[in-house]
């Protein structure tokens, strides 16, 4: 049997001593059992656990990638809607501008009709419109 010494912090030594007392073991037997248990752990199980974790992370990554793609599609749809709304707004502005111009012309005609004129001026205006 080989012998080795290990330095540990005071609080870890106190915990180990307390644990040994609870288990009714010597401190050396407790440390020996702890080293034996640690060394006996199945390395293959640790590898499988690691692979399962990697698979889980890959699945999460695929899910996040799908969510990102979905968000990109939503952004494109919003951009298309915005462009459509802007075009509609421009068309509405053009219609309003045309109607405003037509209203202005109508008002000018009404003002012109309200001016007092002689019969001769009215006949002349009907057959020979004034040039601008």
List keywords for this structure.
rod-shaped, mainly alpha, 132 residues, single chain, 4 helices, Arc Repressor Mutant
What topology emerges from the helices and strands here?
Layout: H1 10-23, H2 27-40, H3 43-114, H4 119-127
Helix pairs in contact: 1-2
How would you portray this structure in words?
There is one protein chain. With 132 residues, this protein is mainly α. It has a domain of 41 residues: Arc Repressor Mutant, CATH 1.10.1220. It is built from four helices and no strands. The mean pLDDT is 89.
What would a concise description of this structure say?
The protein is mainly alpha-helical and 132 residues long. Helices cover 83% and strands 0% of the residues.
Q: What would you call the structural class?
A: mainly alpha
Quaternary organization = single chain
**Broad CATH class of the domain at 1-41:** Mainly Alpha
Whole-number radius of gyration? 46 Å
What's the story with the biggest beta sheet? none
Distance between the termini: 121 Å
Strand residue percentage: under 5%
Number of strands: 0
Helix-strand sequence: HHHH
User: Overall mean pLDDT score?
Assistant: 89
Shape: rod-shaped
Helix percent reads over 70%
């Amino acid at each position: 049997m080989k012998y080795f010494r290990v330095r540990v912090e005071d609080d870890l030594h106190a915990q180990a001593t307390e644990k040994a007392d609870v288990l009714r073991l010597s401190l050396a037997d407790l440390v020996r059992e702890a080293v034996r248990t640690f060394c006996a752990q199945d390395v293959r199980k640790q590898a499988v656990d690691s692979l399962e974790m990697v698979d889980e992370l890959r699945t999460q990554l695929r899910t996040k990638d799908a969510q990102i793609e979905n968000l990109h599609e939503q952004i494109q749809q919003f951009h298309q809607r915005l462009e459509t709304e802007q075009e509609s707004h421009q068309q509405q502005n053009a219609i309003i501008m045309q109607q405003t111009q037509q209203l202005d012309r109508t008002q000018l005609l009404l003002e012109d009709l309200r001016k007092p004129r002689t019969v001769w001026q009215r006949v002349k205006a009907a057959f020979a419109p004034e040039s601008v």
